[in-house]
Design a protein that fits this description.
Elements lengths: L2 E5 L3 H14 L4 E5 L2 H10 L5 E5 L7 H8 L8 E5 L4 H10 L2 E4 L4 H8 L5
Helix pairs in contact: 2-3
Length: about 120
């Protein structure tokens, strides 16, 4: 089944996302990163990541800075920016990158809506 990379400096947010996925999508797996550096290390090693859910505000760089690197390994349609910043400027920047925008708070409907909209 599919593998999802969650990138968020909040361990709590990563845990919520992981629980939603593992409880609702049997066979799917989750790989976690707490920073841009961890995420880059993971995508350098794993060639089989199907989806990425990326926080924007993290130590060591923003999700907006990381997305172009993720797009080298994951198709744009399978990448989502997860943020509490719902300002129009953020929406424009995310759209320009060609990825989805998911607005916090994290809910089962939000995460599964993104992951289930099409096969990996």
């Amino acid at each position: 089944m599919a593998k999802v990379l969650t990138i968020d400096d909040s361990r709590f947010v990563r845990l919520i996302i992981k629980n939603i996925i593992t409880e609702s999508l049997p066979g799917w797996s989750v790989v976690e990163a707490a920073s841009n550096k961890e995420a880059r290390d993971i995508i350098d090693v794993h060639d089989n990541i199907d989806y990425a859910i990326v926080d924007n505000n993290m130590p060591g760089g923003s999700g907006l800075e990381l997305i172009p690197q993720l797009k080298e390994k994951i198709v744009s349609e399978n990448i989502a920016m997860l943020t509490a910043d719902i300002q129009p400027g953020m929406k424009v920047r995310v759209e320009a990158l060609g990825v989805s925008l998911l607005c916090k708070p994290v809910t089962e409907e939000l995460i599964l809506g993104f992951l289930k909209r099409k096969p990996a």
